Amino acid sequence: MPNLVPHLLNGLSLGLLFALIALGFMLIVGVMELINLAHGSLFALGAYFAMVIIAPELSWLGSVGEGYQALPLAMRYGLAILLAPVLVAVVGMGLELCMRRTYGKKAEYGLLLTFGAALVIEEIIRLVWGPSEQYLQVPQAVSGAFLFAGLIYSKYKLFAALFAVFAILLVWLFLERTPYGAIIKAGAHDSEMVRALGINLTRLRLLVFGLGAGLAGLAGIVLTPIWGLRPHVGIDAVIPAFLIIVLGGIGSFWGAVLGGILVGLAVGITGAYASEWSLLSMYLLLIAVVTVRARGLLGRKSVLEA
Amino acid sequence: MGARPSAASAWISGEMVCLFAVMATLPLWIEAAGLYQYLGIEIAIWMIYGLGFNLLLGYSGLPSFGHGAFFGIGAYVFGLFQAWAFESLLLGIALATVAAFAAGAVVACFLSHRRGIYFALMTIAFGQVFWFIAIKWHTVTGGEDGLLNIPRPALELGVASLPLGSNVALFYFVLLVFAVVVVALWRLVHSPFGKVLQAVRQNEERARFVGYNVWRFKWAVFSLSAAVAGLAGSLFSMAQQSAYPDVMSLHASGVIVMMTLIGGGFVSFWGPVVGVAVYFLARDVLGAVTETWLLWFGLVFVVSVLFKPEGIAGVWQERVSGVLRLRFADAPLRSGRTGDVSIVGPEHGETKDAIGQSPSGR
């Protein structure tokens, strides 16, 4: 019997990160009933944007001024975490404008379109940044390792997990405590009624898609220092994201968080016994849950079931 | 096409004869066109795959994003059979097809009571499971490298033995299989079974209410489509002389969706055939000019989904007849339009005739 504690901690932190990836996905699927298969590409795009913001001299931007490059890495990293998601959100909004033609058609159209968009974004990344593995710098304070209870942990993983908790709480506060959040939730519940109440649904969808894309980009910035940064890293993100959403229940905030943690724990625990096969457990978990309960753990009945 | 009932019920149609004639002369002129013999094999194999896939996407309206799994299973089973048992062409292909059918049948048990997006998502999950196993089960599948040195066994005809080592010989063998698949699937989609599939696509609820066991039809078409994918996969492992997990990835599974859609699988039996040809020609012709041909192909796909989901076949049909002659009564995937001529719609006159062709009725 291996010592499970480090695996459980690993699983928990992975679960929180998975939940972070799934947040943006959840917003879009909740309000727009659209599975955004481009989520992974936006995730990768966020990390690439951050890389340029952190170290513009290493990219095609070239030198952008001595003063900026002299700033401490932590400050440039902070700027990247703020700015890159906004840029991704703009890309996401552009995608939403294309999506409009598919509204009112069957949900499969959205699926096909975002699949194509994912391919296009990935190819653009490959074109701009090249196909090879890149490295996203992180500040000195969160790199390296520390010792706790006789075991070595990566500082960055702890930082990323805490950041995920922070981001999840922030999104929750936004959804629960602001009027915008109320409108978004109402849109997820009954978009016709929202429109009837005089709220501009078109703009709401644009904003939600932008927000979802921005969160995907944010997740990319936080996760790629762990996973590595390559043009097709998005596929490692979009698949857990949709698994978690389906597992937790489409449109349920805490379902997404719960799904993320469950998937993380499943991967962590199987990692203790068969590390080679650990990622398989999340697919099997999904298949098991959805076979029994199509709408997921905390989900309500969704139009997507029809 | 479907507009003429006589053509639909025939075993061989004019389009088939033309297609087979063009394909059969391919080895004579493909090199003159600046391409190479191997490309013909690849195109023919993927056409088989695409036609089988379109049973799901176009005819039943069930988008599978994990179909590469069954293609891969066919390839691996063929390779393993040659390595572990003995070299045999037909037995290997038959076993690969049966294995893919069996895998499809198991997966379909989980999928068949799912609809729409949930169906698509479950196919992704299952596709990933198989892909993951192929990568990790080193002792059997050879991991990421895959199975190497898969032979091309000779075709034993009892009196004669035809070696398939050369690309031209293998091409004609694949073409033969292709012809059989085309005729079989053409008959299938124009059979009462095919009509029920289209009814399921148009409105699953109605199909159920008129008494069809929709679950069983979805299960059958998924398993069948998986079997065709496995057949194509076994041929592919012979062509490549190897089997590797790449063909099972989500990316590869998505490519077959794109080919089928761009070609016009939603409106025409021949959609996937057109799409596969366009894809491979684009890969070789555009790929020679630019490294980023996949970007352009992806853009064409996006534009196609947005503006012309009927694909190339749809554009062609529009040109030919002035109006889009939908071979299917309803534009696929576009539900809820008024004025649909629905096979299972009780308010339409044609309805009773179409329902009369129930699988048990004939």
How would you explain this protein's 3D organization?
The complex is a heterodimer of chains A (306) and B (362). Chain A is mainly α and 306 residues long. Chain A has one domain (4-57, 64-301): ABC transporter involved in vitamin B12 uptake, BtuC. Chain A contains 12 helices and 2 strands, in the order H-H-H-H-H-E-E-H-H-H-H-H-H-H. Chain A has a two-stranded antiparallel ribbon with strand order 1-2. Chain A is globular and about 55 Å long. The model of chain A has no long low-confidence stretch (mean pLDDT 84). Chain B is an all-alpha fold. Chain B has one domain (14-277). Chain B is 67% helix and 1% strand. Chain B contains 17 helices and 2 strands. Chain B has helices at residues 5-9, 14-24, 26-29, 37-60, 68-84, 89-111, 116-136, 138-141, 167-189, 192-202, 204-209, 214-240, 250-263, 271-289, 293-307, 311-321, 351-356; strands spanning 155-156, 161-162. In chain B, strands 1-2 form a two-stranded antiparallel sheet. In chain B, strand 1 (155-156) and strand 2 form a beta hairpin. In chain B, helix 4 (37-60) runs parallel beside helix 9 (167-189), helix 4 (37-60) crosses helix 10 and helix 4 crosses helix 14. The longest helix of chain B has 27 residues, at 214-240. The two termini of chain B are 23 Å apart. The interface between A and B is large, with 41 and 40 residues.
